[in-house]
Amino acid sequence: MDSSRSAQKAVIQFLRSEGEHASQMYRRMKEVYREHCLARCTIFRWCQRYEAGHVNIKDLPRPGQALIVTNNATISAVDELIRQNRRITAREIAVELSISKGTVHHIIHKKLGYGKVCAQWVPKHLSEDQKTARMGVCLTQQFPH
After folding, report:
1. pLDDT tens profile 65-123
2. I want to staple 36 with a disulfide (CB 3.0 to 4.6 A). Which of 3, 46, 50, 109 is the partner?
């Protein structure tokens, strides 16, 4: 049995077209769906919508920010801004790219692996070339002769 919201909305629409009252609908649906049943106020609200002429049981799209902003283009844009200016702040990046500061924080720390050291963004882990270069510097410093 499908206990999704859209399935229950379809049942509400069907029972409403038969002339069933909202309180009776709630009792019948509570017996069938048990803990997965829509709330009583939700059933009443949907009954009112169907009486007003709404026939679509799907949720309509809502305005607002997209759920997924962390795509490859955004990640590379954040990386490019950091490479141009290592002292840039997360707030400045957020304003520049028109994304939230939390998203910038997630991209910087989780996706790019950067951390703040002496007010500059640096990779948390060294690449193999950087490790080799450091080893070479250490060896020349240890044995100057």
Report:
1. 555 668 899 999 999 999 999 899 999 999 999 998 999 999 999 899 888 777 777 77
2. 3
Q: Which fold has domain 65-111?
A: Arc Repressor Mutant, subunit A (1.10.10)
* Cα 57 to Cα 6, 7, 24, 140, distances in angstroms: 6, 8, 20, 73
Tokens 């950087």 correspond to 130
> Which H or E element spans position 121?
strand 120-123
Q: Output the CA torsion sign for 99, 104, 107, 108.
A: positive
Domain ranges across the chain: 5-52, 65-111
